[in-house]
């Protein structure tokens, strides 16, 4: 039985991408002659197998998308936020995070001048550091807000990567419904063509203009929360850049996602 993060990161994107196949069955089966219980059972078995295959495929495509998206975003968000040359977080915040890393992990991130002279070395060190930060946080923990951001990123990444499958299924569904319309001359099949084309068009628009930004925003939110929580866990009395100590949000919702930002 899949837990909540698995449902969000794999099952829900797979269900969305399976929609064209459901359209094809729903709009053409009523028009087909001699469709009995055996045919319905066969269709259900095929859809179930396709669904379970999609739950695996969307994660693979999501990870592949991630490998191309991170360089376009300037690298892994958990690494990029701690770079001195990155402007998303303030210098006082970065200085605090560097100090906590040095005191808690025994690793000294490169200084601003060192990073400027050796940016690749600085990034490699920050990647190693963030791996340890993720291990320290342990996504099986009860920090609900961090887990929520991680789940949201997994959903956005997998849907963004798997959108091509949804478009392909929309095209196949439209062709199938059109063939049934020509052969059977049933108007319900024509509505299936329109529904398939509409779904594919909406998915293309979302993939081009909304999903990439949504995925990046979700990744950045997770990275920011991960670092802030790490600082509080390792040094609860360490002042934030404004001199205040931040208290992490703790909840009791179950679950974790299998891959962070």
Write up this protein.
The two termini are 25 Å apart. The protein is elongated and about 75 Å long. The chain has one domain (4-234). By secondary structure, the protein is mostly helical. Residues 240-261 have low confidence and may be disordered. It has helices spanning 4-28, 37-73, 77-80, 91-105, 112-117, 119-137, 144-184, 187-209, 211-234. It is built from nine helices and no strands.
Produce a short descriptive summary.
The chain has 9 helices and no strands. The chain is mainly alpha-helical.
Instruction: Pick out the low-confidence regions.
Output: 240-261
Profile the largest sheet.
Answer: none
| C-alpha termini separation | 25 Å
* Count of folded domains: 1
Provide the helix percentage: over 70%
Average pLDDT over all residues: 87
- Share of residues in strands: under 5%
| Gross geometry | elongated
Order of helices and strands: HHHHHHHHH
């Amino acid at each position: 039985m899949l837990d909540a993060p698995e449902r969000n990161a794999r099952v829900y994107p797979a269900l969305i991408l399976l929609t064209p196949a459901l359209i094809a069955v729903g709009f053409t089966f009523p028009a087909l002659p001699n469709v009995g219980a055996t045919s319905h059972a066969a269709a259900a078995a095929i859809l179930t197998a396709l669904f379970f295959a999609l739950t695996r495929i969307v994660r693979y495509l999501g990870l592949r998308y991630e490998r191309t998206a991170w360089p376009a975003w300037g690298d892994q968000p958990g690494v990029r936020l701690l770079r001195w040359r990155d402007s998303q977080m303030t210098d006082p915040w970065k200085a605090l995070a560097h100090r906590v890393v040095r005191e808690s992990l025994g690793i000294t991130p490169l200084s601003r001048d060192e990073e400027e002279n050796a940016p690749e070395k600085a990034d490699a060190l920050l990647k190693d550091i963030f791996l340890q930060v993720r291990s320290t946080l342990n996504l099986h923990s009860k920090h609900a807000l961090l887990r929520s951001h991680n789940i949201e990123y997994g959903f956005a990444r997998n849907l963004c990567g798997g959108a091509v499958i949804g478009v392909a299924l929309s095209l196949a569904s439209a062709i199938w419904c059109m063939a049934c319309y020509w052969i059977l001359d049933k108007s319900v099949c024509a509505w299936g063509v329109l529904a398939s084309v509409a779904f594919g068009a909406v998915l293309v628009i979302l993939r081009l203009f909304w999903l990439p930004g949504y995925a990046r925003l979700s990744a950045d939110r997770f990275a920011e929360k991960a670092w802030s929580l790490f600082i509080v866990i390792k040094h609860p009395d360490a002042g934030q850049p404004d001199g205040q100590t931040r208290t992490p949000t703790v909840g009791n919702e179950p679950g974790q996602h299998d891959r962070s930002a």
